Amino acid sequence: MRQADDCGPRAVDPAGPPWRRRGRHANWPPGAVLAASIFHLAGTGELADRGGVHLATGPLYYFLLLAGPVALFWRRRAPFVAVAVSASASIAFASHAEPYWMYAVAPAIALFSLAKQGRRTEAAIAAAAAWAGYLLVTVVLAGPLDLPAGVSPGLREATLAAAGLGGAVLAGVVSQVHRDQMATIARARRERARAEEEQERRQASEERLRIARELHDVLGHHLSLINVQAGVGLHLMDNRPEQAREALSAIKTASAEALREVRSVLGVLRTEGEEAPRQPALGLSRLADLTAGAGFPVRTRVDGEERELPAEVDRAAYRIVQEALTNVRRHAGPEPTVLVEIRYTPGSLMLSITNTGRVAAAAPRTEDPAAGGIAGMQARAHSLGGTLTARPSSGGGFLVTAVLPTGPGGVPPEPALSENGPGVQR
């Protein structure tokens, strides 16, 4: 069963027993204690049956066998104590029994734990000290201590003991390296997941901004046209009903076009599996429809060889022209005329929108510049690596010029496009 994290409501009580202070690994020390105890008792029982144990079964017998496993309870909080106690108990028992690896399991586990904590040098020194102490007691001091015959290890047993202790240290080092690698991989995965989440949030924010800009352009253009035509209709309703009818017809057309474009903009929000929108993509191919429904005379001039443009460039060019015409309708005089110039160059598309009629006095600017208008047109151009300027022309109006890159050629220096009269008033 998965243990609760230390910060959760089922966190381990730090004042509890030592084997329950490790959170996720709370059950591991008792498991090590149990395993070592089984090896010590079962192994020595088999060795005793063969006559290899020279110690009567009693309190001392069990104390020496179980002191090492019990010391493993503290192998994380006090690893050196666990190594010293378990090794001393095993060496003391080895002085009364023939060489046998099973009663040395507890020292091996303690050395493994010490090395796994990253204390490689200390673990190696402890292993060497334990091996030297074993040989000192069972070989060098066997005579002075009057140890039973057969407890002294031969060259083979001494070599195997050294290999076993060294292997326990090596296994702990490998385990520690593997744990660190897994922790690094886990951190990298968390960082990657956070980066992906941040990227998704940023893309969602950019998409919301794009949709808001598209809606501003669509609704601003068509609603301003509807507003102008409604005013004309109200003014002519009594005296010139036929012209009022034309204004109402223009309102109907503009409202229908606005609905179609809004559906096209919001089409990106449709759920997966729905049918794609049938509305043609907005671009300069629909420029004639845009200028025809502007509500005032618009002339268009195209220079250079027309070609298929990247979708984003084509759409941005359409929206820039649309917003410029909306500005003319809002702020120009009663009879504006507009010249739209489009120039194709090898690496860019150049636009110029100029109001060639008289303009009214500059209207106060009440809209949020971040929502659309010049700021929105500039944002469109800059997002594609292009430029856009809106500046007063020699006639007192505004001239909107834009340069949008279309290929490897990049954006050339801004050309001196024509200023045929006052520019677009903003």
Describe what this molecule looks like in 3D.
The structure is a single chain. This protein is of the alpha+beta class and 426 residues long. Among the domains are: 136 residues, no CATH class; 138 residues, Heat Shock Protein 90 (2-Layer Sandwich), CATH 3.30.565. The protein has 10 helices and 5 strands. A 5-stranded mixed sheet has the order 1-2-3-5-4. The chain is rod-shaped. The two termini are 69 Å apart.
Overview features:
alpha+beta, Heat Shock Protein 90, nucleotide-binding, phosphoprotein, 426 residues, HATPase_C_sf, single chain
Question: Can you summarize this structure?
Answer:
With 426 residues, the chain is α+β, with helices and mostly antiparallel strands.
**Helical stretch count?**
10
CATH superfamily of the domain at 283-408 and 415-426, called what?
Histidine kinase-like ATPase, C-terminal domain
Q: Which H/E pattern describes the elements? A: HHHHHHHHEHEEHEE
Uncertain segments = 1-28, 362-371, 409-426
| Proportion of residues in β-strands | 5-15%
Query: Percent range for helical residues?
Result: 40-55%
Spatial strand arrangement across the major sheet: 1-2-3-5-4
Largest sheet: 5 strands, mixed
Averaged pLDDT: 78
Radius of gyration: 44 Å
CATH fold description of the domain at 283-408 and 415-426: Heat Shock Protein 90
Shape: rod-shaped
Domain Signal transduction histidine kinase subgroup 3 dimerisation and phosphoacceptor: 207-272
GO molecular function: kinase activity
Domain Histidine kinase/HSP90-like ATPase: 315-406
Protein name: histidine kinase
